[in-house]
């Protein structure tokens, strides 16, 4: 689906970023992976055959360097996937001290401002390459707020609406902009969260898991591959008439 395309993935650390890089490579793309952590990034690159270019998406000069390095190596950019994870620190507004407020701002900057910078400095090269696709990974939380997660939800909600604006702005130049919004993703992180809830509620992990899954229409939690496949579809020419759209990958936990 992506044969011959050059794809850049921001936020390509372990987990979804690594799965995206591996599957995009399998689909024929030449992949550039970027993240803040050099060690983690280089491990992802080694495992997937991608080119590693460390960058903090909140820093305009580092994002410009990511674009330049990609162009110097491959001469074009066809696909940009913004998947930087802003983190969530689970604190209610009345409990936010000054240090936490800085963490909150950093999370929103990583998600929304980081996505904007990547689009600003890579989109011109996508246009010069004849057009292509930008896929922004948002979240089910971009539409529904949860107590203690305002940093993550606000950052992802910003990306959601930013994507609509950019779809309208870049469409005439042949660049499509879409979102993939995962719900829960099966992972060690999710398992640990369910185990913590089980302890807090005086029940078992299995009871928490079964209760949560029962609220999903498909009765299953999405995997990293499920999410990555949706990204690949939107990145490919099979979605050449789709822009400003969002694909929800949440097993039917939320309908929009």
UniProtKB/TrEMBL annotation:
Under the heading Pfam families, the entry gives: adh_short_C2
Q: Which Gene3D superfamilies match?
A: NAD(P)-binding Rossmann-like Domain (3.40.50.720)
* InterPro entries, alphabetized: NAD(P)-bd_dom_sf, Sc_DH/Rdtase_CS, SDR_fam
Q: Does the keyword Amino-acid biosynthesis apply?
A: no
Kindly state which keywords UniProt assigns to this record, in alphabetical order. Answer: Oxidoreductase
* Similarity annotation: Belongs to the short-chain dehydrogenases/reductases (SDR) family.
The protein, known as: SDR family oxidoreductase
What is the taxonomic lineage of the source species?
A: Bacteria, Bacillati, Actinomycetota, Actinomycetes, Streptosporangiales
């Amino acid at each position: 689906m992506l044969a011959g395309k050059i794809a850049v993935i921001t936020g390509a650390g372990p987990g979804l970023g690594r799965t995206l890089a591996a599957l995009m490579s399998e689909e024929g793309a030449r992949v550039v992976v970027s993240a803040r952590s050099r060690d983690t990034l280089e491990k992802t690159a080694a495992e997937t055959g991608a080119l590693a270019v460390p960058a903090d998406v909140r820093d305009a000069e580092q994002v410009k360097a990511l674009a330049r390095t990609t162009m110097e190596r491959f001469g074009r950019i066809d696909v940009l996937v913004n998947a930087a994870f802003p983190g969530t620190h689970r604190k209610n507004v009345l409990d936010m001290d000054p240090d936490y407020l800085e963490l909150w701002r950093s999370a929103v900057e990583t998600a929304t401002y980081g996505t904007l910078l990547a689009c600003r400095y890579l989109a011109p090269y996508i246009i010069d390459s004849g057009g292509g696709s930008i896929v922004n990974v948002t979240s089910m939380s971009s539409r529904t707020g949860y107590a203690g997660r305002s940093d993550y939800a606000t950052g992802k909600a910003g990306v959601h609406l930013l994507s609509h604006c950019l779809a309208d702005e870049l469409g005439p130049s042949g660049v499509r902009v879409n979102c993939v919004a995962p719900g829960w993703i099966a992972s060690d992180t999710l398992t640990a969260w369910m185990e913590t809830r089980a302890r807090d509620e005086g029940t078992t992990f299995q009871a928490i898991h079964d209760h949560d899954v029962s609220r999903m229409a498909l009765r299953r939690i999405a995997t990293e591959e499920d999410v990555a496949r949706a990204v690949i579809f939107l990145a490919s020419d099979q979605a050449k008439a789709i822009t400003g759209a969002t694909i929800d990958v949440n097993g039917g936990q939320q309908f929009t």
